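Standup notes
- DV: blocked on the single-chain target, sequence here:
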Amino acid sequence: MNAVMLSNDYQLVNVVKKAGIFKEDQLRLINDITDPLEIMSAIISIRPGLIIVDDDMLKPDTARLLKSIKKVYVNIFIIFITSDSSIELGREISQLGVQFYAHKPLDAEEVVESLISIMRLRLKGNGTHFN
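- DV (later): unblocked, structure below
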């Protein structure tokens, strides 16, 4: 499964890369684009089955961007990570069908377990995946 990670958080990037779940050509890191239209364009060209989103990099456009992505890829898996503990954000994001929601500081083991769980779902054929 191809995956996109939208993050400039060194710790998060390291956790995902060290998990060893993705081959080098399966994980695309986007850490230098913050414009929602450019990100959407990149995601459309990559066609990932999973997006790992660092809200801290994309604020205040994260929810709007995820809504747009879900319109194009209804069954895409989303891992959402943030340092914002507001209930409002949690409600807004949970309506988008996020598979894993985590607060910073990260628990590396939880992130890895969420990735493994998503890969298991993919193997069972629960959802549409693109590669």
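- Follow-up: The chain is about 45% helix and 20% strand.
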